[in-house]
Design a protein that fits this description.
Length: 347
């Protein structure tokens, strides 16, 4: 067995100092999430996986809400014992302390719900007994990757955008130029050009995942350049986009969760990222001992992990019937495997 390094000592001291803070954060369940049937949970108690989810934002944010809701469903079903941290630090040192506290406390499965790559790898090395599922870009023996085929839904959204736009200009804004967002915006553009070859796309990367004001400004700048259908990637950019399209009375698509309520007449539909199958698979693998070597979990449109949910209240423009038919035909082709949406991640 390896000797304890000074790096390990320093990390453990930092963990101990933060214990009280994390305990408080762990109780920060913004939603009550349900408790499931007590009898069922008691029967499953011996098999419960001790799980923690670390969220970079409040559960009112669509990105964090999707992860929180998926974890709470497993808790309600009696599959896991769950601890939650919301609004986790964004810097590597800060989130490392949060993750390490859970790892030291005997957590079996850590759901790191952001691109905490450096922190995840550090904690995975220091605590080799913990299993981590994350949005990191590289597999480790105890670090699995949760893939994000949101681009499949964005392609379908783009097809509708191509039929809706009158200016032939569409827009997309994102928190960072990472593969998830790059692929989403590329797919949105490609889908739009499938139904309207005259379309041009304006992209913006605002450098922040949570700043709705910057997201709104980015969308407003695209509207000033005649964009009349837009999409976003990231909680802040999506919230700001919804505000901008409501004020300008143009069309847009929600990100990750259902955003109809944020701009009821203006949201054409939302690209849904359903984390239920991801978390269920990871928990089951931990329970049956097959989590390692860690793998890539991917559930796309065909597997219930991604969807495009249309908003019945959308009323800014009428979606041409032939465009809707084309979109539904392509949806079926994606689900059957006949058509694969091009994945362009910018790397």
């Amino acid at each position: 067995m390896r000797g304890i390094t000074w790096k390990t000592v320093a990390l453990l001291l930092a963990v101990a100092a933060l214990a009280v803070t994390i305990a408080a954060c762990g109780d920060d369940d913004d939603d009550d999430g349900g408790g499931g049937d007590a009898g069922e949970q008691a029967d499953a108690g011996a098999d419960k996986v001790k799980t923690a989810i670390v969220l970079p934002c409040p559960t009112s944010d669509t990105w964090c809400k999707q992860g929180f809701d998926a974890a709470k469903k497993l808790e309600a079903a009696g599959a896991i014992d769950l601890e939650v941290t919301t609004n986790a630090p964004q810097d590597t040192a800060g989130v490392t302390r949060v993750l390490a506290q859970y790892a030291q406390g005997g957590t079996e499965l850590l759901l790191a719900h952001s691109t905490y790559q450096d922190a995840v790898f550090d904690v995975a090395e220091q605590f080799p007994d913990v299993n981590i599922a994350s949005f990191a870009f590289e597999l480790k023996d105890n670090v699995a990757i949760l893939e994000e085929p949101i681009y499949e839904g964005a392609y379908l959204a783009g097809m509708l955008a191509g039929g809706i736009t009158e200016s032939n200009t569409i827009g997309g804004s994102a928190g960072q130029d990472v593969p998830l967002c790059h692929a989403e915006l590329e797919a949105f553009e490609a889908g739009a050009k499938r139904t309207n070859k005259q379309v041009k796309m304006i992209d913006a990367y605002i450098g922040d995942w949570n700043d709705a004001a910057k997201g709104k400004q980015a969308t407003e700048a695209q509207i000033d350049q005649d964009a009349d259908v837009v999409i976003a990637c990231g909680g802040g950019p999506a919230t700001g986009m919804a505000q901008a399209i409501k004020e300008a009375d143009i069309s847009g698509f929600g990100y990750v969760g259902n955003m109809d309520s944020q701009a009821p007449k203006n949201i054409v539909g939302s690209v849904i990222y359903n984390l239920d199958p991801y978390f269920e698979a990871a928990v089951e693998d931990v329970r049956n001992g097959s989590f390692r070597p860690a793998k890539r979990y991917e559930f796309g449109l065909a597997d219930g992990g991604v969807d495009l949910q249309l908003n019945e209240g959308y009323s800014v423009k009428e979606i041409p019937a032939d465009v809707m038919d084309q979109m539904e035909e392509v949806r079926a082709q994606i689900e059957s495997g006949e058509f694969k949406v091009p994945y362009v991640d910018g790397t």
